[in-house]
């Protein structure tokens, strides 16, 4: 009985630490694009979690940008660029199939 109680206390403490230490998104945004495509984005201090409607989910670190918020993988084969109420997605240096994306109303 003491072992079970000790394990339960450890689990409660671990959950509490995770709950308050785990990074929380600054904002979550749903975008609607041409051809009825959608993108979900959760913005954090130094990265964005992007979920495409084709099933891909990726975390991209923040990258250098002169304007807007730009996120890219290491080789910049995937760039997610947010400015105002719209985003642009570049894949392999060209605009992707996610075109004219803006915040869903």
Flag low-confidence runs: none
Instruction: Give me the CATH architecture, please.
Output: Beta Barrel
Measure the end-to-end span: 54 Å
Q: Beta-strand level of the residues, as a percent range?
A: 35-45%
Envelope shape? elongated
**Rg value:** 18 Å
What is the total domain count? 1
Determine and state the CATH class: Mainly Beta
- H/E order of the elements? HEEEEEEEEE
Major sheet: size, sense and barrel closure? Answer: 8 strands, antiparallel, barrel
Number of helices, counting only DSSP H or I runs of 4 residues or more? 1
Q: Mean of the pLDDT scores?
A: 88
CATH names the topology as Lipocalin
The strands making up the biggest β-sheet line up spatially as 1-2-3-4-5-6-7-9
CATH level 4 superfamily: C-type lysozyme inhibitor
Share of helical residues = 10-25%
What structural category arises from helix and sheet content? alpha+beta
Beta-strand segment tally: 9
Could you explain the architecture of this structure?
19% of the residues lie in helices and 44% in strands. The chain has a single domain, classed as Beta Barrel (Lipocalin). It contains 1 helix and 9 strands, in the order αβββββββββ. The protein is α+β, with helices and mostly antiparallel strands and 105 residues long. It has one helix spanning 2-21, and strands at 27-32, 38-43, 47-52, 57-63, 69-72, 78-83, 86-91, 94-95, 101-103. The model has no long low-confidence stretch (mean pLDDT 88). An 8-stranded antiparallel barrel has the order 1-2-3-4-5-6-7-9.
């Amino acid at each position: 009985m003491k072992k079970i109680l000790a394990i339960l206390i450890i689990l409660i403490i671990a959950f509490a630490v995770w709950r308050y230490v785990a990074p929380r998104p600054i904002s979550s945004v749903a975008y609607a694009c041409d051809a009825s495509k959608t993108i979900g984005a959760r913005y954090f201090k130094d990265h964005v979690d992007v979920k495409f409607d084709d099933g891909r989910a990726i975390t991209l670190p923040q990258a250098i940008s002169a304007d807007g918020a730009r996120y890219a993988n290491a080789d910049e084969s995937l760039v997610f660029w947010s400015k105002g109420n719209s985003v642009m997605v570049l894949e392999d240096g060209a605009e992707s199939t996610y075109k004219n994306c803006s915040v869903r109303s």
